[in-house]
User: What shape does this take?
Amino acid sequence: MTPLNATLTGVERHLAPDDIVVSKTDTKGRIIYANQVFLDIAGYVEKEVVGRPHNIVRHPEMPRAVFKLLWDTISQGNEIFAYVVNRSKNGDHYWVFAHVTPTFDQSGNIISYHSSRRAPRREAVEKVRTVYRSILDEEVRYNDPKSAAAAGAEMLMRKIVGTGNSYEDLVFSL
Ligand SMILES: Cc1cc2nc3c(=O)[nH]c(=O)nc-3n(C[C@H](O)[C@H](O)[C@H](O)COP(=O)(O)O)c2cc1C
Assistant: This one.
């Protein structure tokens, strides 16, 4: 398999201050809706993303632990905020501050997920990048993805406990 980073350009794309990047997925994480801002920044047309798994925009510098925390949180019916670097179709990248929520039916079952994202502050990106790099360094020591995500998540939790705050406090302090 070609490593993803074989096609990274190193070029960063930036959202405009008022841009909101929106996507919705089914319960398995397959994209069911993407707004025009999403398509523009990620470099796709709608038919290329709808029906595809959301990891279509996954960037190799994102720790698995962050997605584990995301899925653990939203599948339990809770919302999460997270900094994410994504990969555009041509290998460029873009940072977002994301808010991901479950959508419920009238009986309280989760029927889909929704993410809206805005441009993060530069200072926050620099701090997050350092944290993510150290988690990724830990994760690459493991061969299987599950062990990597678990080890990365443990490290993320240790970093959070070390601050004396919750994950959410930490995210909003950046
Ligand atoms: C609503 C929603 C939005 C998501 N948005 C992103 C995203 O922008 N970028 C991303 O890499 N993963 C996103 N994910 C997480 C992906 O489903 C997936 O867990 C992640 O890309 C890691 O994929 P992998 O485990 O195949 O490496 C999102 C998931 C949901 C439910």
In short: Residues 4-120 form a domain with the Beta-Lactamase fold (CATH 3.30.450.20). Strands lie at 21-25, 31-34, 80-87, 93-104, 110-118. The pocket of flavin mononucleotide is lined by residues 23, 25, 29, 54-55, 57-58, 62, 67, 70-71, 84, 86, 100, 113-115 (CB under 6 Å). DSSP finds six helices and five strands in the chain.
